[in-house]
Amino acid sequence: MMSQQKPLDFLWFIPTSGDGAYLGTNDLARSADPAYLKEIGIAADRLGYSGVLIPTGVACEESFIIAASLAPVTERLKFLVAIRPGVASPAYYARLASTLDRVSNGRLLLNIVVGGSAQELAGDGIFLPHDERYDHAVEFFQVFNELLATGNSTLDGKYIKAIGAQLGFPPVQAPRPPLYFGGSSDAAIDFSAEHTDKYLTWGETPAQVGEKIERVRKAAAARGRKVSFGIRLHFIVRETDEEAWDAANRLISRLPDEAIEAARARFTKESDSVGQTRMWELHGGRRDKLEVSPNLWAGIGLVRSGAGTALVGSAKTVAARLREYQALGIDTVVASGYPHLEEAYRVSELLFPELGLGLPNHRLPVSFSKDQVFGGGGHGGNLRVVSGS
Questions:
Q1: Nearest CA-CA partner of 13 in 46, 45, 48, 40
Q2: For position 333, which CATH number holds?
Q3: Is pTM, for the whole model, over 0.90?
Q4: Luciferase-like domain: which residues (predicted)?
């Protein structure tokens, strides 16, 4: 039962490559301008989300900079930002992480991104084969972690050479902010088991997620470690299941077949990500095979790289599906929805009560009496309810 489980840690998403109401078209699209991203961050903070994922990549605004812009306008919100080993030195990333943790008063979470698009990695000067990138990451985080924990590190490694590296200021969180990571290959599983705090999976079927969690658990146990687990999902939550499915179909109603084919070519030619391959295989590019598990809809993955599935349904339905993942060991959800501002409200107002999360307790009282009903916001205020027979 949900009441017997610890409530899920629920994060939202900052769409730094843009937002919109329809996939595959510029109709009702929104640019990722700083003011809009702040609107989403402020909303997530006041609606009760514990944090936000800020994505990384050539099409995204830089996650550390966006987090720094959101920190002064939020109070409790944590920022899950990306470290990409090889793009910069571990000493430089240590300075970034320590400073952001300090200016946000300990609200930094770190998302390790080792792979993705081989073409994009080449543009960043990274030419290592898939599995060797993880060997490089092991050396990278040896220096990074030592710097954050002690302020000093030296390593004369195969990939990383840092002689007498120093960090001037420690982070607020000791010994360092938590490390999140996602990857589906054998090399990724081994890396996560040895070096990370929370393993994130994309929204595959419960059976697939359960199998992956068990692999990570066993690999971590063999090293004398424990890893916690999270899932990255989109959400389409409405008051009824029918409304939710209508919204899902509307989201891809203007998506041309040419865009799906272009996405397929991009995923297969530019990416060596095992996780991306698994996402595509859920639907194979077919519009008639999108509900890949009860209420798990793969329509977003027709064109979106990375996380491509959504839970679709009423709040009760979606909460039931989340309980299935929670029973497997998931304790964290990194969520999103289109458009992200409006969907942040829908998920919080409809789904959070079903999950036992409720609304944030810092809301101001609206009246002296609890017995009032919203009356449309006119000059007379809300309606007083008079009890009686």
A1: 40
A2: 3.20.20.30
A3: yes
A4: 9-331
